[in-house]
Amino acid sequence: AQSVTQLDSQVPVFEEAPVELRCNYSSSVSVYLFWYVQYPNQGLQLLLKYLSGSTLVKGINGFEAEFNKSQTSFHLRKPSVHISDTAEYFCAVTPGDYGQNFVFGPGTRLSVLP
Amino acid sequence: EAGVAQSPRYKIIEKRQSVAFWCNPISGHATLYWYQQILGQGPKLLIQFQNNGVVDDSQLPKDRFSAERLKGVDSTLKIQPAKLEDSAVYLCASSLYRDSSYEQYFGPGTRLTVT
Hints:
Chain A has about 110 residues and is mostly beta strands. Chain A has no helices and twelve strands. Chain A is globular and about 40 Å long. Chains A and B meet through strand 6, strand 10 and strand 11 of A and strand 5, strand 9 and strand 10 of B.
């Protein structure tokens, strides 16, 4: 079974500042990793995913994430945030064998301040 | 391409009443999921369908929750009777195999309040 930890429940940051949202996972098998964003009163939208290969993956809206196998982490970063990035961010894992069993973390609320 | 549709968007009921949610996935997506998202938490899988068959319903409280997927397309999730702790957003998602993995597409959710 897989599990996901997002240690920061809330992250406030000023506009144009960099941000990092942390995600750690636990699994006995290889995994695929995902980051989703949820804007108020909307469903989740895929930001990016890691399957294999290069450990740095780039996604939409200027976000990127780095996979670190030894630390079982998949932290999300953006060099300069905008007010419009204010949302809830979820890290998720699935088994890396074409698995469709998605396990989500508890989420991190990013608040971008003017 | 139309997204995942859900209705209603909001529902308020009293405890012990019944309620049903409807989901129409993206055309051609064989896999459909129902998630429960309690305030402040991540989505928790309730049930997963592959076409019209159940793949995983291990976390579905079967004494009060039921779900079906008619003809492998639309799906309904029912709660009967509802409890206060069922207050949550119920998300429907469907998935497509793209770029070497399955990717989920979520609907806007139904916010259920049980009073």
